Fold:
Amino acid sequence: MFQQSVPRTTIQSAVNIAELVYHSIVRNVRKSHGNAILSILINMLQAFIFVIAFYVMFTVLGLRSAALRGDFLIYLMSGIFLFLTHTKTLGAVVGSEGPSSPMMKHAPMNTIISIISAALGTLYIQVLSLFAILFIYHAAVTPIEIDDPIGAFGMLLLAWFAGIGIGMVLLALKPWFPTFVSIASTVYQRANMIASGKMFVANTLPTFMLNMFDWNPLFHCIDQARGYAFINYYPRNSTITYPLVVATILLMLGLMGEFYTRKHVSVSWGARR
Structure:
């Protein structure tokens, strides 16, 4: 009765991992409130307020004329939700349970499960918020029309994947340089308010401004998403390949760094901080 049951087949191992990921996702989603439904609603309300704030700002400043021909809310959401998904995923991965966390004392638990659950929990909340806002807008205001919804959703997943890659690198550095990682994570998330290009149409930017944004994988994801969302917009200054390659390289580096850190981490590292 005191022995832990070890899965003996590949299917049993997969089921065991899936169960651990599921319970970890539920734990992450319910962090903001004890009630699961209220926790989800609070996260959805944050995304809704973000969209409304930008809608009012663009309207007051008279920037709607600079947007693409088509539904203005789709233009806003193509930038805002990719930005939120990217930055929140990065923050969730960086803030996931590390190797010295008390949660790791439970035998089936490990850091990879913690990272996967943090990333999937964020994706679940953002996708749920996206579809809820689109449904309300479609039913209460005006029918929406997206030229290629599968392609646009693919860009959301790519922005999420890029957030995982960058977050993994910062997570691997976190036990070694905690102050630097905290500052770098905050600066990157705040800088993406502008550097993501969600308030601009890339095809209208001059070359010197494009050079300020095209280093950012999220900039490419947002511009490509607008190309899929609007039939009359073709993104000439961005590519899908760049964020995919950058995110994959960073993810591999982050996994190698996390593996090395996990072998050397100690609870006493943070004793003097």
About this structure: Residues 111-140 form the longest helix (30 residues).
